[in-house]
Amino acid sequence: MRPWKRLLGGSEGNEQLTAILATLLLVLLAVEGGTLLRLGTLLTVHVFVGVLLLPVVALKLASTGWRMARYYLGGEEYVRRGPPHLAIRALVAPIVVVSTTCLFATGVGLIVLGHSEGALPGLHKASFFVWFWAMTIHVLTRTLRLPRALRLRLPGLAVRLGVVGASLVVGAALATITLPTVDNLQDSLTAHVGIDAE
User: CA 50 to CA 66: how far, in whole Å?
Assistant: First the structure.
């Protein structure tokens, strides 16, 4: 066994990293979704969690992208494990990736530009609805596999946990940096919908 493979756990290590990230994302996305119920007053939390999610989501896309690339490039372990169901990889996965990218890109655009009206918020909302339905299918088809992947005893667990922890630290740092900018967006939103922020 190659040293790097021994350290990282090979295809099973990739599966475990993906499962760890998926579990973390389920929790963080539930918090993010909860803020939508009172966005007028929870916008700061919504933006903070949204920015916190950026590196975690990027790492999850990288992990699943690595599995896909290794499978299609003929990596023995990955070919042996087989691909996801055809409908998932040909239809659901591309929609999840595109809608996730659009959702987070428009979210970052809203923060940077400070817009609460116009095309960008509309695109953010539209991408959310597409993302929500695609992600619901994705979660329902993958969640039952999480416990087994999380329980695997593989080399490199400390490395995987360290990488996930680092993505959270980077996300928290980025989210903290955006807090002053969110005040202006909060003021703009509350003025637009007629809510007193005080």
Answer: 24
